[in-house]
Write a structure and sequence with these properties.
Elements lengths: L1 E7 L5 H10 L3 E3 L7 H11 L7 E5 L9 H12 L4 E7 L2 H11 L12 H11 L1 H6 L2 E4 L5 H12 L9 E8 L10 E4 L20 H7 L3 H24 L3 E8 L5 H15 L3 E6 L5
Parallel strand pairs: 1-3, 1-4, 2-3, 4-5, 6-8, 6-9, 7-8
Length: 287
């Protein structure tokens, strides 16, 4: 069982960290009171055998005071329960936190106690230093966009190899019906010989053997597929390492019946052989 406690500075990205961990398969709870941590952990341990609570993350708000005896007592109790927890401390520079609050127009929680925003940020940083020293991991979000922030979390708490952290969708489409709006990468295969003009192939699709044999009877089909596979072999691990959770690859021909379908099917097979989770779709095959 993986059990992660997320703490850190207000505005540094604690809630974003929880959201990203949820994408990685964690069961996440935001703003759990410190007093409930051990009880919650016990419930999760009891249900871990079912697989539902095998990966758990919680965000706890401990900004209410300058001492953290209750939190540290909870951490000691988790150790006594033989729960191998991890404490993630999320921080950022004062300048970045202040800028974020200015941009979002939210109030820092400590501003309600009469502190100015710079005073609140500095006070909280000093108050949380004992927690920071107990952290298993310290993640500084300064200079990180959301994608890179997620990539850092993936590096710390991912599910193993990069190819297990990204889901790929390969879809064929017809340009006459428009490019898929969710496409990340678009490839145009209208330069390939068109089976549409072969009477016996006109009503077939790119999933049928006769169309496949026709297309791959040409040198340019093999060369294009080879170059595309080399490109994807380079790109996929880069996207995974950067923290991208899903990638949509769209391959188009004129009508979305023949060439794009065959190439999308071949690309899907290649990506699956590389060990990635991949799904194959043919948007316009029945139009």
């Amino acid at each position: 069982m993986e059990f992660i406690i997320i703490s850190g500075l207000s505005g540094a990205g604690k809630s974003s960290a929880a959201s990203f961990l949820e994408d990685l398969g964690f069961y996440c709870v935001d703003n759990l009171p410190v007093a409930l941590i051990t009880s919650f952990a016990g419930l999760c341990m009891a249900g871990a055998g079912t697989g539902k609570y095998s990966r758990v993350a919680l965000v706890t708000d401990i900004r209410g005071g300058q001492t953290f005896d209750e939190l540290f007592q909870a951490l000691d109790e988790l150790t006594a329960m033989k729960l191998d927890y991890q404490l993630l401390f999320v921080e950022a520079s004062d300048e970045v936190i202040i800028k974020r609050y200015k941009e979002t127009r939210h109030n820092h929680p400590l501003c309600r106690q009469g502190y100015s925003l710079p005073e609140a940020v500095q006070f909280e940083r000093t108050a949380l230093e004992p927690v920071r020293r107990r952290a298993s991991h310290i993640l500084n979000s300064t200079g990180l966009n959301l994608s890179k922030f997620r990539g850092e979390l993936l590096r710390l708490f991912g599910m193993g190899a990069p190819n297990e952290a990204i889901t790929v969708s390969v879809t064929s489409f017809g340009f006459k019906y428009g490019i898929p709006i969710d496409a990340d990468l678009v490839f145009d295969v209208r330069f390939l010989p068109n089976p549409y003009y072969i009477p016996e192939l006109k009503e077939c699709t790119g999933l049928e053997e006769d169309v496949w044999a026709f297309l791959f009877g040409y040198r340019q089909t093999h060369e294009f597929l080879r170059h595309l596979e080399e490109l994807l072999a380079f790109l996929l691990p880069q996207y995974a390492e950067e923290g991208k959770a899903s990638l949509v690859i769209a391959i188009g021909c004129t009508g979305g019946h023949h060439r794009s379908v065959a190439m999308a099917h071949a690309v899907t097979d290649f990506i699956r052989q590389k060990g990635y989770s991949v799904e194959e779709q043919h948007r316009d095959i029945s139009r």
